[in-house]
Amino acid sequence: MPLKDSHGLAGRLHIELRDADGRLVERYRVNNLITTAGRRLLASLFAGTAQSPGLQIAVGGSGGDVQPGDVHLGSPVDAAPATIPAIAEDVVDGAPRIVLRVVATLPPTGKPDAQALQEAGILVSVPGAEPVLYNRVTFPLINRAGNLEMTLTWEVIF
User: Fold this and answer.
1) What letters, b where the CB count within 10 A reaches 16 and e where it falls short, cover 72-101?
2) Of the candidates 62, 110, 101, the residue with the CA atom closest to the CA atom of residue 82
3) What are the C-alpha distances in Å from 8 to residues 34, 43, 49?
4) How many angstroms from the chain centroid is the CA of residue 87?
5) Exposed / middle / buried, residue 130 (Cβ in 10 Å: 0-12, 13-18, 19+)
6) Can you tell me the distance from the alpha carbon of 144 to that of 120, in angstroms, rounded to the nearest whole number?
7) φ/ψ (deg, to 5) at 37
8) What is the mean pLDDT of the segment spanning 69-98?
9) pLDDT tens, 22-76?
10) Which residues does 84 contact at the CB level (< 8 Å), separation at least 6?
11) 81-to-48, 55, 57, 95, 102 alpha-carbon distances in Å
12) Average pLDDT over residues 104-131
């Protein structure tokens, strides 16, 4: 019997808002769409035609439809450098997968007005090119108060 692997790329975003004492105020979890540009970038990295990337997680205020051809957030608001603290084997939806976690924390803004957020994405920077929007997700409105820290943890599932 020939081998067949039908697992595609997937991603899930976890958002946590914490107060100054580190107490969890709100938590969200949403699935995302991996953009065509993001898939192309992964293929280039695998082929060795792109150099090691830098990562950021960006948030924005547009809750519009998400499309594979998206190359930017609809309305960017903020971004933070991201790290990759873990790559692990896991079972996702009953199948063995590799899960890479990408984490970024946006510190409190200190501003009196809340940030109205409805979208997020991972921005991948490679030397000599514009940042690539690897993925994009929209979610119900989050009004992030200026005193709250926001941690975004993306599970990129291979």
Assistant:
1) bbbeebbbbebeeeeeeeeeeeeeebebeb
2) 101
3) 10, 13, 22
4) 15
5) exposed
6) 14
7) -65, -35
8) 92
9) 999 999 999 998 999 988 888 888 787 777 779 999 999 999 899 999 999 999 9
10) 55, 100, 101, 102, 103
11) 24, 6, 7, 31, 10
12) 93
Tokens 């941690």: give the residue: 151
Token look-up 């510190």 returns 107
Q: Residue 95 has which token pair?
A: 């199948």
Specify whether the CB–CB gap between 87 and 98 falls below 8 A: yes
d(CA 68, CA 138): 13
In this structure, are residues 77 and 115 in contact, taking their beta carbons and an 8 Å threshold? Answer: yes
pLDDT band at residue 92, thresholds of 50, 70 and 90? confident
Cα within 13 Å of Cα(53), Cβ side: 26
Query: In whole angstroms, what is the distance from residue 79 CA to residue 58 CA?
Result: 4
Higher pLDDT, 116 or 95: 116
Q: What is the DSSP letter of 114?
A: P
Helix, coil or strand: residue 66 = coil
Distance CA(93)–CA(106), nearest Å, equals 30
pLDDT confidence bin for 14, thresholds 50/70/90: very high
